[in-house]
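Q: Predict the bound structure with succinic acid.
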Amino acid sequence: MKYDVLIIGAGIAGLYSAMNIPKEKSVLVVCKDIPWECNTFYAQGGMVTALDENDIDLHVKDTMEAGAYHNNRDSVEILSRTSLETTKDIIERGMKFDVDEDGEILYTKEAAHSTKRIVHAGGDATGRYMHYFMMLENSHKLQRNTLVYDLLIEDGRCFGVKALVNYKHQTIYADDVIIASGGVGSLYEYNTNSRTVSADIHGICVEKGIELADMEMMQFHPTVFVKTPFARKLLLTEALRGEGAWVVDEDGKRFLFDYDERGELASRDIVSRAIFKHNRDTGKEVYLDFSMFEEKWFHERFPNITRTFDAIGYSFPKDRVPISPAFHYAVGGIKCDTHGCVEGIDGLYVIGEASSTGVHGANRLASNSLLEGVVFGKRAVEHILAKEKVEIKIPNFDKEYRNIVHHGNDIIYKKRLRKIMWEEMGVIRTKEGLLNAKNAIYDMKNRDIGRLLELRLNTASAIVESALKRKDSLGTHYIEN
Ligand code: SIN
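A: Predicted complex:
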């Protein structure tokens, strides 16, 4: 099997890339499980777009400020400027964002945005509406149950992947491979991510010496309901605070103002830390309070959240709900340029959450992630289509792999890893905790383990090593002495 382009991942970045490749090209999009098990599907708040030319400078400023000015300014400017054309393109193709009674697009606001510039769909179900739309728009073959466990790289070129397809080993060759596999959520005990997002491809990159960047920058979402037995914890979108919801402690105190004058609308790293510290230092439970909202309006604006929480016994907006920060988004990732090219490896691209273009700096501005997926997905495809095709003889890739999926005690070690990452590489870190994590990861790597766990441990190790290198706090990386 040889394709022109192989795309690993069927979230917004992978699907929008596929949509931009002409039908005549042979393209295969693969996903690990069912296509809607991806982070795009669970995105609630919306997608940022610059409102017009005049908003670009302000959007760039908000993105850089949230990112603690650790951002690559070129990437941020590309993100904001290109949003004008990508949002227009998506709407012209037929995507229906929420509109008012006159048919005008409704924009919302989230924390650290200076203005309302976030488009949304289905109220609080933007991700699933966009994902469904792009699944229908993609005309290329989409193959599920395809678990990539190696990249075929030799002499500075990528030739394809090794994968388990419906549990059978297959080699898939391609002239160009786009990694759009998302972040690292499954490494954390508390996370908001799809269960399929487990850092495998990052782990392969570590093995092959491909550079990861800013891996200490792991973002925690401040308002998550974690009291469920399931791996994916329930997100309460930042748009709730954007519309006016409060964060209170069990005495009803809006304590966030003790930490930042913007209160609920401070950037995500600041709010997460304040909630974490307040709970740790006072022992008081923290809640999200919606009691200021009118019931009918709330149910129409947040239908998805209303239904999900109704099923577990909460009646919104009347009931307040206990919250905690939880891992949400990998700001760092596989290093690439602003066309998604991975340096030193021809034919290998990375886009979306898996990538690191430096666009998010040290902390991602809310709802810039869906936008990142479309903007950099489009740019990677433009780069691929502009290249001259050269025929290169494919080398032999006949390495033997054993125990790809599970082995012995993997399940116990995976649980241990998730706990360590949450406790030591979480919202607040200490040098001692990071060294504990490093030792524990090293210990597990030296056990008799399967390949997927080995890949997870590679990525975890890269995260901890990056955190150890950064001595001072910055953005999402907060170190307490
Ligand atoms: C949210 O809806 O709060 C999540 C949006 C994001 O992660 O940008």
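A: The chain has a mean pLDDT of 96.
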